Amino acid sequence: MKAHVGGETFAQASLLANLRSSVEPRNRPLSPKRPPTELAGLADLFPYYAGFSFEWARETLLSASGGLAGVVLDPWNGSGTTTLAAQMAGMPSVGVDLNPVANIVAHLRANIAPASLLTSPPNADICAEDDPLLAWFSPPTASRLRSWSSLATSSPQGVRALALVALFRVVRELTRSFQGSNPTWVRRTSPDRPQVAIESEELDALLLKEQRDISKRLESHMRVGVRPILVNSSAKALPIASDSIDLVLTSPPYLTRIDYAVAYARELAVLGTDILANRSLREHLMGTTLIRPVDARLGAIYGPTANQLVKAISEHQSKASRGYYLKQACQYLNDLVDSLDEISRVCKKGAVAIFVVQDSYYKDAPIRLADICEEEANLRGWTTTEKRPFEVSRTLTSLNKAAKLYPKGKVSETVLTLKRV
Ligand SMILES: C[S@@+](CC[C@H](N)C(=O)[O-])C[C@H]1O[C@@H](n2cnc3c(N)ncnc32)[C@H](O)[C@@H]1O
């Protein structure tokens, strides 16, 4: 499918003009980091790992659009913060993400019409022996959850998104004890961590209440504008026509070994995917810790900062640096440059791209991701118009005992603004 998005209507132009006038001038620039308590843009419906702030996205889109309701793209759209901000600003948008869980949340946030609630499915024992939900739930509970998810999946889009996000939230809550201090690592059933068992009636009541609560929350939030096009696809193969995008606002996965499939293993299990049995999704997510079958491009094909990183990792004295870690970093860099090629293809001349990227460390070697992205984009015909760093206080490295062994400096998140020449 190729997404074609139309131009600005009179209604959109006047909506944009109104919204623009509601952006207040600030003494200090707003940070892209999402405050944990953010309610704007329905961020609380399903706080997504590494999601950025809705307020920041809205203000950034409005000031970067230069008064025109051009077409917005987020190639790593996550929970749809960019696409919702574009929708609220009257701008047509396309959001792409490879993780189907992210797309469902983005769909729910973009719904304009109130969705009807899904009622309890009939009782049926439909849980297969290898159902991925059995990693956390007893067979009867997994079976009841499977009945709900099958009914939700076959429902129309609005009902589907509401019921599935309710399922995600309830499953998360019921398996809270499986979550460690690292938000992206989820344990599974083990002898000292038994499966969760809950009566079907109690589970049904929880799911109905959750749908009602979400629905109320949706009603309190006015959504207008052009509904975004949301696609479950890879940033490396954008299903979008060439020269069709005016503005990119995005945040790629960082080189911090975050495995989005593991982080959302329970929600993917609700959708019927077992990430341990089916490596495909996990393997193709950018930043994955799995190594795909040999990629011929191993280093020395990037700009100077990426090449320095490749050299630092391959010469590092620690175990597996020259093997596994070098392959993982090159796989990440290859995904990044392939995605930048695609983003460059779909953008018009004069398009603006705003990237939020976070630096990190490999052991004691800095990973200067902002510089890497800037150089790789410059090599592809983008010029830098602004590079603004924000200090980050808590990173995943600060949660990892082994990583703490190496001395490190402060880490920053950078908002990088580029223009396609
Ligand atoms: C930093 S998050 C984006 C968060 C988003 N800005 C928000 O506010 O929710 C990066 C996203 O990239 C997605 N992703 C990873 N590999 C991808 C790929 N190859 N193509 C498209 N999306 C991918 C992940 O699923 C994740 O949702």
From TrEMBL:
<dbReference type="GO" id="GO:0003677">
    <property type="term" value="F:DNA binding"/>
</dbReference>
<comment type="similarity">
    <text>Belongs to the N(4)/N(6)-methyltransferase family. N(4) subfamily.</text>
</comment>
<keyword id="KW-0680">Restriction system</keyword>
<dbReference type="InterPro" id="IPR017985">
    <property type="entry name" value="MeTrfase_CN4_CS"/>
</dbReference>
<protein>
    <recommendedName>
        <fullName>site-specific DNA-methyltransferase (cytosine-N(4)-specific)</fullName>
        <ecNumber>2.1.1.113</ecNumber>
    </recommendedName>
</protein>
<dbReference type="InterPro" id="IPR029063">
    <property type="entry name" value="SAM-dependent_MTases_sf"/>
</dbReference>
<dbReference type="GO" id="GO:0032259">
    <property type="term" value="P:methylation"/>
</dbReference>
<keyword id="KW-0489">Methyltransferase</keyword>
<dbReference type="GO" id="GO:0009307">
    <property type="term" value="P:DNA restriction-modification system"/>
</dbReference>
<dbReference type="GO" id="GO:0015667">
    <property type="term" value="F:site-specific DNA-methyltransferase (cytosine-N4-specific) activity"/>
</dbReference>
<keyword id="KW-0808">Transferase</keyword>
<keyword id="KW-0949">S-adenosyl-L-methionine</keyword>
